[in-house]
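lol so apparently i was supposed to do this last week
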Amino acid sequence: MRSTEDYVSAAKRNLFVPAANMEKLGTETLPRLENSGGIYVYDEDGRRLMDGPAGMWCTQIGYQRKEMAEAIAAQAMALSYNSPWYTTNSPAIELAEKIAELTPGDLNRVFFTTGGSTAVDTALRFVEFYNNVLGRPAKKKIIVRKDGYHGSTSLTAACSGREGNWKNFDIANEKIEFISSPNPRLHPGLSGSELVEQLAGEFESKIADLGPENVAVFLAEPLLASGGVIIPPSGYHARFKEICDRHDIIYISDEVVTAFGRCGEWFASEKVFGVVPDIITFAKGVTSGYIPLGGLAISEKLVARISGKEAKGSFFGNGYTYSGHPVSCAAALTNIEIFERDGLLAHVREIGPYFQSSMQALAQLPLVADVRGNGLVVCIECLADKNAAGVTDLDKKIGARIDEIAFEQGLIVRPLGNMCVLSPPLVITKSEIDDMVAILKEAIVRTAREFEAQG
Ligand code: PMP
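anyway here it is w/ 4'-deoxy-4'-aminopyridoxal-5'-phosphate bound
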């Protein structure tokens, strides 16, 4: 067996991880996880850590589900791969059928990708293709929101409004237009419905300025997850969809985080946020992180306009070697069976309010300026001066410090500057939520004391 030191030095030498701090590349490495079970992971020293962010919002059914390992092994033994260009496979067909059953409206045409970024990238390429086939090549503008996150391909990164990720990349893309984040905290004087009207007005003006004949798509997460769990005011999505319909603009709901139970539904768009989009993208929870998979479900109406004799000889030249991978699709089918058998959506609907109210109790603590969430996702936003309007450089250090202390106490937190995001595996119990809140409370109180001492 290799020693810890050996792993550390090999990681420092050869591993290049996502979002690497380049100043520290080669001198620092990340905690190495070795084992898992339920909502916990175990590090290289066997220390148990509660998985507060569900990995990256994805380990819905929890770790070490034997049925998942068996389904993956069985499919790998039967058929480990097929070319999706020339053949298909039973798990991909069954999964497309199942997802069509679970999506709202007529979103019944399912395309598989390798993850969330490739799902959103494919959705955008589909819209580009759609408008070209329909003979309107100018209809290409993509409208997105500040604070949104849509992935890490060139196109999806350019659609992501978190400027911290842009430095030293060539992000500019003449097709992409940003509008405001639907963050109620940025508009303290406005009621929810007033804010919806203000944002809808901005959207209408943007479309008018660009010319509706040039606008192809509105791309939006139901709640802006990586932007800090920003929850738009009630009625926002339906109002935006109505504007899209009036201008023949395609509404893509990026449900990479929210699909598969995070808000207590298979898909959050319709049942939680009141909108039936034209396209939904998904990934993460579709396999509970056991194996990579993503995809999109497209409205039959859209597909009908550019298929059959309407296709005018064109073929959709977009796809991946691993589109509809049989092992990934078999894992997803088993994951969905586990959701159904264990009543996991009902569990989230039942325990979600307990999770939210337990987190709300933290709002009384020093530093905590806002606690917001839905289902099993929450953001604790911190400010050194709770009532300050803006976020200072000092504030941006708070999340990392809370994470550090929580980690020592056995809880992984997702720090995002001055915010901490928690989105645990969906199988979490009330007593595990109590443990999580107790650790968070201590971490916040200790961080507040330290910040106070620093003045
Ligand atoms: N869309 C959203 C809303 C996401 O949160 C993410 C990832 N966090 C992505 C797309 C990209 O997914 P992936 O990392 O699987 O490519």
